[in-house]
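Hi R.,

As promised, here are both runs. First protein below:
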Amino acid sequence: MPFQIGQSDFLLHGKPFKIMSGAVHYFRIVPEYWYRTLFNLKAMGCNTVETYVPWNLHQPQPDRFYFDKRADLVKFLQTAQDLGLYVILRPSPYICAEWEFGGLPAWLLNIPNIRLRQSCPIFLEQVSHYFAGLLPLVAPYQITRGGHILMMQIENEYGSFCNDKDYLRAIAVLMRQNGIDVPLFTSDGAWQDALDAGTLIEDNILPTGNFGSRSAENLAELQRYSARHGKSFPLMCMEFWDGWFNRWLEPMISRDPQELATCVEALLKRASINFYMFQGGTNFGFMNGCSVRGDTDLPQVTSYDYDAPMREWGEPSEKYFLLQQIITNYPDASPIRPPILPSLTAYPDVPLANEVSLFNCLDQVADRQDFPYPQTMEQLGMPYGYLLYRATPSSASGEIRLRIYQGRDRIQIFNQQQKVATQYQHEIGSEVMLKTPNDHFQLDLLVENQGRVNYGGKLQAPTQRKGITGGVMLDLHFHTQWQHYPLDFERLDRLDFSGKADPNTPSFYQFWLEIDGEPQDTFIDTQNLGKGVIVVNGENLGRYWSVGPTCYLYLPAPLLKSGRNQIIVFETEGVRPSYLRFSDRPIYQPLTTEKILN
């Protein structure tokens, strides 16, 4: 075997090898920048790149696989190999990664009696189908076949979810059946209970730890766990957290560079390392994950900068150069080189060109589906973004009480196209009074899926089904006969801006950015916008929200072109942008205690 897991060292071609890796998520970086990112990783001294593989990206529907653009995993592996980087691949069904639903496809929620991430035959059947489409593509890149993949992960932090060893073994068997013959590993929090639940050490599968501090203590726990089972493995931190992710309505999180360097220096003396993250990238589209605090879901921001050594936009931070100085002292380090730097610009402001209310273009961006009772996003086959429910009830009393039961995540209520209320998860179900002086009235409910949770027990919860799962009660009865409009942001080229505009309603705003010469990276300034998404030349950059802490969307140059570029803002908060502003730096908003509490 060209790569082996010894008792105290990893062995590469029979010689001890210290893995110095950095996490790069190909799906969070435009493919045109994969080479630059991987070059810079190697230039920092790392010899390996680690990446997750998100199931929901590669199998967006049960009958459709996708391996193009940011999903072109084979191209990413080939780029790493061309640069001489080894690869740690984590194609486990669940990845966490602060990614929508932890990488699980939302369509799994439509399958009756399924239990996620357990030895449930229904779930394993779906994993088997996924692996049959995915693993044969990556198998040729294993080091056992002349490629650079050193090892692959069975499951991710499983000890923080369940202790179903039959499930872990079933995943390992499926990987072997699909041509995977490199060593396998698990990664868990480095405490005994998590390791007991989440590893397959009894099957000689390498256990690794995930942590970002107290290296001596955590490595000692890994050693103690192996010794308890009469085993000895090389020590590795599979996720050394060099920063952290951010959530809406919370202050930015950062880590002191010198403190990080001190911790890394201590860890490398005893173990191999994977920096999580090396470069975080961007949660394009609707792929941001969601945290949980108690019973409250906390959606994460579009930027996955992570305060990493290489920033979201590809610029090295102070951490990069400090780590470079440490890594260069190890014989397995790659040669230190200057990094490739990004080119950033602030384009001139562009004025608003056209606008149209969502209520006057629904048929252009959504296929209407009619059902007696409200259907969920998953049932309608459009599990991300926004879903508008419409009904035309009648009331003879001049006003009527409205209650929405079991809705997720954020619901805007419109009576005769006038906004009445916005309800969040803990407010949904509260009573709203609707004025109904004209007997029949148009009721519109715009529901936003703000992101499914990516970690913990709520993966199994009914709350991960998005939209209205209970019903809508008017007076004391559930109302029937609903029109459903799941918004499709890949159909914005069909928008007819000759329709009526109404900035008090959710609306589409069109801008044109003219570029002379080669496009450059930029940031769209969202400080003066409310809430929504921005689509550039058909590419959904992701969500923005005025609550902060981030007040920008990163716009990579490859999504632009020389000449005319169309930018469409979908704004839901009644904010009419008369112009669009750009910046050559990211924009952050300090959060006051009052704003955080509200």
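And here is the second one, sequence first, then its structure tokens:
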Amino acid sequence: MSTASINTGLRPLLVASSAPRIDVYHGQLFIEGEWRAASSGGRIERRSPAHGTLVSTYAAAAPEDVHAAIDAAHHAFRKGPWPKLKGAERARVLLAIAEGIRENVDRLALVESLESGKPLTQARAEVSGCIDLWQYAASLARTTSGDTYDTLGEDMLGLVLRQPVGVVGLITPWNFPLWILSQKLPFALAAGCTCIVKPSELTSGTTLMLMDIVKAAGVPAGVVNVVTGLGAPVGQPLAESPLVDMLSFTGSTRVGSMLAGLASSKLKKVSLELGGKNPQIVFPDCDWDAMIDAVVFGVYFNAGECCNSGSRVLVHESIAERFADAVVERAKAVPVGDPLHPDAKVGAIVSEQQMRDILAHIEHGVAAGAQVRVGGARYEGASGTYLQPTVLTGVTPEMSAARDEIFGPVLSVIPFRDAQHAIEIANDTAYGLSAAVWSRDIDTCLKVARGVDAGTIWVNTFLDGYPELPFGGFKASGVGRELGKQAVEDYTETKTIQLHIGERNSRWVPLKQ
């Protein structure tokens, strides 16, 4: 596919004024409160996808290292003080971690930007946002409670307790390393659980750096452990170990399904936050400028490497051409380039493999009849993995471009006839993570919000989020919820206590006289 005429008008790639000075971070495993090398001595190197330079190295854990971390977490849960602490005491520790993050925002953000390829300004905002997640989790440590039933008769009192589920394996992805960890770890700790964290081998830096903060805040040894390395040697033991009571995973639907199968064979509790093919549904009476800006933000934020990416827009057929023209012009204005450049809004794709996967999706769309209106290719001559912001038109609901998660800066535009037709198209995928509706008519908005199968519906906005509101998906987008009061509840089990009061006079077998 030739891009010479298609790409006319794209902004040139932003280039930083000087090469970055990178202090390579060398990470170890964090087990039972101490740093240690992998048993094999193996290491993993991570190079910046934007610059090609070495950013960090990590210990490559083997299964025996994972089992050591599991044993540490199991011992800390069964014998250690953490599950037995008052909620107020756990809350104080979580608040201390939040302050530790605040004191290290710039350091954490730089490593996250260099490892992931995302703009430094974005990484700094995300790291700062994690502070709020830890503070909110601290509030839940003090307020999570069970129920009482005083309606069972004068001789019975019912108590329903919430107790920590036990040892939790947390597997996090590469696209929002510290943010997604902060959607899991503080809530598990607030419940009284102990944890083993497996970050992506592409972006392990901020997870390991957080452990210095965790230790300084007073988290007891063994309560939080981190094992770095490749997926199978680390993730599979977490899913299969009988000492791990729960598995929480964020990542692709394919890997999540496999891990869920392994975990279910051990009857392990599972929480999964998986993929999405999230629609923004646009009606003619919307706030036009706000909608266009939100659409471009929704698909190009984090280079589209986001489970919540608004990667398909369903637009009413009466405004489809006007919309396509407007979104193409706005896409051309998106500043793409070096993550360390202060004006960059979109950085590098996380890896060469991810770049090839995205380009393959675009090629499949074109082969099926879609048209590339802008973008569709790499930035030629760039030293890093930079992809042009892309808009596909002529997309129909049965095409893979309308149904499959692309996980890149690629927008598919699909026309619809009326609200019911839009709902049918929106629901015609395997996913159900999030959606948005744009209209000034509240009846239209509510009809769509109620009709679309998704865990989050935005009305006249997109990609807003708050710690108080639960997040998760329907169908192949996952199981369970993160954030909100439900987040801590997910890391608990309920226990029923039936307390008899006074003499128990009834007898199943009468006593002999």
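A quick note on the second one: The longest strand covers residues 156-164. Let me know what you think.

Best,
J.
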